[in-house]
Write a structure and sequence with these properties.
Shape: globular
Structural class: mainly alpha
Distance between the termini: 26 Å
Strand content: 5-15%
Order of helices and strands: HEEHHH
Number of strands: 2
Number of helices: 4
Number of domains: 1
Helix content: 55-70%
Strand order of the largest sheet: 1-2
């Protein structure tokens, strides 16, 4: 079965937006959005997208 490149890459990679997803979950309970963005080196928009993805799962 043919798997598109992006889907294959997502399943092989353990991080999202170049960050460790489990680390994000740990920080989410301790820090606010701005602090998470600064700690992980991502934008506020990416923090919001990650939080939405968590809510959907």
């Amino acid at each position: 079965m043919h798997v598109p490149y992006k889907k294959k890459e997502i399943h092989q990679s353990k991080d999202l937006y170049g960050i460790d997803f489990h680390r994000f979950l740990e920080l989410q309970s301790i820090l606010n959005h701005m602090e998470i963005a600064q700690e992980l080196g991502i934008t506020l928009g990416e923090v919001h997208l990650l939080k939405k993805k968590i809510e959907r799962t």
